[in-house]
Structure formats: structure tokens, C-alpha cells
Amino acid sequence: MTRPITAGVDGSEESLAGLAWAAREAVRRGFPLRVVHAWRFQPHDAIDAGEDTQAQWVRDGLAEMARGVAERHAGLEVTTDVVEGPPAETLIAAASESEMLVLGSRGHGRVVGFLLGSVGQQVISGAARPVVRVRAGDEPSGEAAGREIVVGQQGDPEDSAAALGFAFETAAARGATVRAVRAWTLPPLFAYSPASLKMLDEAGGLEPHEKEALGEALRPWREHYPDVPVVEHVEMGSGGQVLLSVSGRAQLMVVGRRVHRTAVGARIGSVAHGMLHLADCPVAVVPHD
Fold it and tell me: Where is the UspA domain (predicted)?
């Protein structure tokens, strides 16, 4: 059974941008599109409508969105699903049944930490499948030829395998170049010891090692997708800083995700968090296998 690409919508401008992005991606990959809305009955003194009536309004609105998408993309299979339940839990469950889940998010605001909203943060932290964040105002022109699929790589090959696989698959569907970015910093021992720096210089430096590590991580994906052009980008600096510096040329930013459990709940790593809030292009967050 083919998994759909799922768009979580609530009728907002942000979610409609996410729906449009999801539809274009579904067409490229030949997948069906599922449009999901998490709904709960909310009685209101000013609205004389019972639960059944409100539910029908929601279904009608979702059907109208689906018709608009189907009219723009002839042949695209579109289904809708109104699910009663908490938004975060509903979307996490929808993601588990999908190739990816696509959500909209607000543009830059005064409080950066709340760009995604609490539901978006919970979904990205809890989803077992890739989640793509699309900003309001995203346009197809951002996917023009010459713009790259940028993906962050760190650690050993298996540490970034899921993110690299997603990036190469997306690039193959779009005829795009993959820019694989590996950032590195000096260990404290080398940063504070002149003698250690001298030894490091005599050994040829750390950058050749980092380039070799990136090449090793990319090798199986180059072999599996021989027609996808690849740029290997190794640069000294923090992962977030280096990825952000090349985000202007990206049509999609792909980052891996590990979840950190804290006393106040789950949170994603700093690099993924930074890209979600600061990168202007769509951002895909891919959980590690």
C-alpha cells in the first residue's frame, strides 16, 4: 500500500501554504495526498450550531480545499479526513501512516520560540516520520532550477542516514542538486593549547578528516542516486551557523532529529530548532532510524 503525503490543515494561511507544498511534492513523487484536520466540538454562545452541524461545516470546508488542490493538479488522488481529537496527537498518528507530514508555520515574529506554535513543536518532537515545515507565503518559485536541497550531516554515516536518504530522494524527484553540509569545531583541547594546535597542524589538520567522514557518509547515496549532483560542503563553525549561511540557496533544508526528554517535555536538538525558526525555506525534520 502506498503511503500518502499528508498535510495537516486548519484553514489558516500558513496551513494552506503547507497544503500547496504537499500537493506539489505528491505530484512529483507520484503519491496520493491526504488532507487532515484535527477537530473538537467547541460550543459558543454566539454560534447556534450543535456538534453535528459544526462537524459538517468542517467537512465541507476540507472538501472545498481538496477540490481546489485537485483542480490545480489533474490526476492527483486527494482524500480528506476530519479526525476528532487533540491536534498534536491526531497529527502524530497521521504522520505514522504517511511518507511525510507537512505543516504550515508563521513567519518571523517577536518571540522566536513560538513561531511553530505548541502543536507544531509537539508534532515534530513526536512524529516517527519526516515532518516538513512550510512558511506562510511560500511560492513554487522557491523550487526553481538552481536551488539546492541542503542537508546537514554529522557523526558517523548511520547517524545521518535517514536525513541523507530523504534529501537524495527529494533531489531525484525534483532534478535538484544536493548540498551536503558537515560543520566542525575544534575540540577544547586544541582550542586552548598552542602545543596541541602545532601537533594538529603537523598532522594535516582536522578538515581532511571531516571531508573524509562526509565522503564516507555520502558514498552509498551517491551509488543509489548516481544522477543526483552533489556538492560536499565542509566548513568550520557550529552546525546551525553553517547551515543557515547556505540556506539562501536552498529550496529545502533537511535536518536530522534526536529528541531530548526534559522535565518540561520533549525538545528537539539545537540545529533542528534553529533551522525551523530561522531558515526562510521549507525545512524537513527527519527522525533518526
Answer: 1-135, 148-287
Q: Could you tell me the fold of the domain covering 1-138?
A: Rossmann fold (3.40.50)
Structural contact between residues 9 and 37, judged by C-beta atoms closer than 8 angstroms = yes
Overall residue count recorded for the chain in this entry: 289
Q: For 193-218, how does the pLDDT look when each residue is reduced to its tens digit (9 = 90+)? A: 666 555 556 545 678 888 999 999 99
Strand-pair partners of 233: 181
Other Cβ atoms less than 10 A from the Cβ of 154: the count is 19
Which residues, at least 6 apart from 7, have a Cβ–Cβ distance to it below 8 Å? 15, 18, 19, 21, 22, 23, 33, 34, 35, 36, 101, 102, 103
pLDDT digits (tens, 9 = 90+) for 144-182: 888 999 999 998 999 999 999 999 999 999 999 999 999
> Residue 207: its pLDDT value, please?
80
CA dist list (Å): 116 to 64, 124, 269: 25, 10, 15
